[in-house]
Task: structure prediction
Amino acid sequence: MPNLENKRIITVATTGAWPKKKDNPNVPMTPEEIAEQERLQKERIRSRERYRRLKAGENLSPPFERTCATCAKTFSALRPNAKYCCPACRQKDYRRMAREAKSKVS
Result:
């Protein structure tokens, strides 16, 4: 007689357990819906991995070489649309634009 000490028997009854659209409209049924759900799941996984790397302090993209709009110094930016090398330059440019706008009104 075989040794049944470490063996398990699993019984499954799948009667009526199939989901239907009328029960839950979010259940994908067609191949297109299934493919879309898989694509969304992959996107969520990529987003989670990107967020984890970002929180860990990893640099996700190489720095962009930009020129400051105020002082014309070259600086490394983390965003491709950065305009200023520092907060002081940003403030200086903001005040200059406010002066120009005020003089146009007067």
